[in-house]
Amino acid sequence: RALVNVVSKIGVDINDLAQHVHKQPMLQYVSGLGSRKAHAILSRISGGHDLESRSDLIVRRLCTRTVFVNCASFLRVNPPVMDVLDDTRIHPEDYDLARKMALDALDIEDDVEDDNRRGRKRADGPSRYVAEVMRRSPEKLDELDLVKYAEELKRLLDVHKLETLKAIKHELQHPNEDPRGEFVPPDDAHVLRMLTGEVVGESLKEDGSTMVSGTIIRVQPRFAIARLDSGLEGFIGVANIADYRVEEASDELAPGQAIVAVVKRIDLEKMSLDLSMRKSDIDTACGRARDLVPDPAHVDPYFDTDAEAVLRERARAVQKKTTARMRSIPHPLFKPLNGREAEQYLATRPRGDCVIRPSSRGMDHIAITWKVGDNLFQHIDVREENKPHENALGLSFTVGDLSYSDLDELIALHVDPIMRKLDEVKRNPKFYDPETDPLYVSEPLSDVLGPNDYSQEFRDRRLSLWEKRVTRHLDTLAQSTGRGAYCVSLSLAKPGSLVLSFKPTPDYRGIIKWTARVEPNEYKLGERGRYPNISGLINGFKMMQTKNVKPREKSREPREERSGRSGRWGGTSSWNAPQSQSQSQSQWNSTSSRGWN
After folding, report:
1. Are 282 and 260 in contact (CB under 8 A)?
2. CB count, 10 Å around CB of 163?
3. Are the CB atoms for 224 and 236 separated by under 8 Å?
4. How far from 269 is each of 216, 225, 231, 385, CA to CA, in Å?
5. What are the pLDDT digits (tens) for 90-99?
6. Could you tell me if 462 and 449 are in contact, meaning their C-beta atoms sit under 8 angstroms apart?
7. This model's pTM is above 0.85
8. Are 138 and 173 in contact (CB under 8 A)?
């Protein structure tokens, strides 16, 4: 088919074929001919019996009239002895149209014999005006109104010739032009299309929406090979055979079995597919197939393609999370939940309980959600290492810089120690829980915050309430003692961490906050502060605050001497506080060495 199309577009020089044996097989691909007719024609014109015109095919009885009508326009005669049109791709039955167009282009009323006309050659035969237009002024053909000419032919002869007239005009302006583009080596996707007819992005997609049918041809313990109707082969891993656990592929599949699967990945280098027979994947593909995508050529010009792209990106993200949730992990604490569902599941369970769930970060991550306190949950990202294959559970697990050999060890040596550390914090007299403060016993949280819908709005309202109550607690404590005050509380913004809130003096506006991370074996404050227990964390916090105050005091003394005022601080504080607050700060500095409230 490709050879017939190319030969039909370019045409062949029949006299050239008769002289060169290696070109002769091309004649059989001319429309109307075949191997037998082509061989008969070549055998009669070989040996110096070249054709002088296309009409020689009839005169010399090289073919029948019907065959001549079918193949004449694809056979060129070069050099054209009788008629210049014999060396074009214009059919002989349209020669009169080409001659008429040439006369009109040269503005000649009729083909009257005039040997004195300049540029006329008798050797050009009956198409001498055509030759003149082709050689000297092909641009004059652009002045012709082919539409009106075609309408006149329709009125007089009842024939449709507009496309023929356009083809004649193009051939006269560009004789024997090769319409083929420059050869471009095919890429892997093009090779796949040529070999199988499958088109990547159309008949084959990697987004989980393409379903294919095939037959199992080989079964191994850990995988099976299927052959599709197009000849492509697909790889089916044992984890992609069913939603439940399959020990060996032979338990579910056998050679010769017909299957329906979903394309998960296209390997162009190996010309193969990764397939999934999971019922969940097939159901998802069936749902996506019902969402028809309009043809881009027929989309409304006012259609918002940017908004569509955003929606498609969101859909892909949801699909990715959904695919992750379909993962199954062999552990009694595993639940196929997302983050919010995990929090709802743990809401009514005791503090310290946890669930293992799929992670939206990908197939090489899992997440552990555990209950820190009432409506407070920590989500721990766990990276799987040394995975046998994509859907298998890793052989080791990493949380930050810490590594564990299995999930039970991770829970016992990471989650449980953090819970014990937080219990130690709650036993310390400086621990403050804004939600259990007796001062607010008449204000239930359900009345203040409303029902917990696990939304970001509820978390923001709760965080704002905590900050107000902690600030009020430190204000009351500092005013009652006349000194600075501090407390330790759980972090709402970073569950599993601590917040050390500090008010330097009773008159100091606002509070200073430090966040301490709780690790399995220590507390971390800042970049270098590491403490084994809560008492060490509080002492380290005091030392950091004392070090921060002394440089401020030293940097203020030169300004006091220049100001000429009495008092230790004088003028305005380096914190841009008024004089009364600066005096209070001086009081804090003097009392800080005697102890903290």
Report:
1. yes
2. 10
3. yes
4. 22, 17, 16, 27
5. 898 888 898 8
6. yes
7. no
8. yes
